[in-house]
Amino acid sequence: MGSPIVVMGVSGSGKSTVGAALAQRLRVPFADADDFHPAANVAKMTAGHPLDDDDRYPWLDAIGQWLAEHCGNGAVMSCSALRRTYRDQLRRRCPDVEFLHLSGTPEVIGSRQAGRPGHFMPASLLASQFATLEPFEPDEGGLTIDVDQDIDAIIDNYVALTRTRTTGQENPGPPGIVG
Predict the structure, then answer these.
(1) What's the distance, CA 28 to chain centroid?
(2) Cα 1 from chain centre
């Protein structure tokens, strides 16, 4: 069927919404990395403290295990995966995992984040998320799409870009591509 896809980006970029819609479009399972956090991580973020790498390691390992169970069958996971080392940790479990980075300005993402009351990740941690974010390195091959468009356009762009990448046919899709 295909490789699992990780929809990544900072908190408030739309990972869960886009990921769920993409999984539905592709007719594959969807999981949200937020559901893999141990209670201690949720408590730490709820208190307004950013996670450190020691907090993230077991969380990423659990996500990697889920991806490994779906290698070759296709699935979509929403996960921040902000640093290259985090993405590499996921690749160790499923080498063919693909990454879709939902990118946007702090203003656009901040306004989206403000519209989701009750989420355990407070808006005050958005700056730390942007500070942690490492763009794809040339050898990673992930796709970056601007979030300042509707969900259908984001998914259409992703599908068109992956079709172009796998078939070599020129089909850039609608505007809104960042990288």
Answers:
(1) 16
(2) 20
Helix (H, G, I), strand (E, B) or coil at 32: strand
CB atoms within 10 A of CB 32: 17
Rounded to whole angstroms, how far apart are CA atoms 52 and 176?
32
Neighbour count for residue 53 (Cβ, 10 Å)? 10
Dihedral over alpha carbons 162, 164, 167, 168 (to 10 degrees): -140
Query: What secondary structure letter does DSSP report for 24?
Result: H
Measured over the CA atoms of residue 95, residue 66, residue 2 and residue 7, the dihedral's sign is: negative
**pLDDT tens per residue, range 119-168:** 445 556 788 889 899 999 999 979 999 999 999 999 999 999 988 766 66
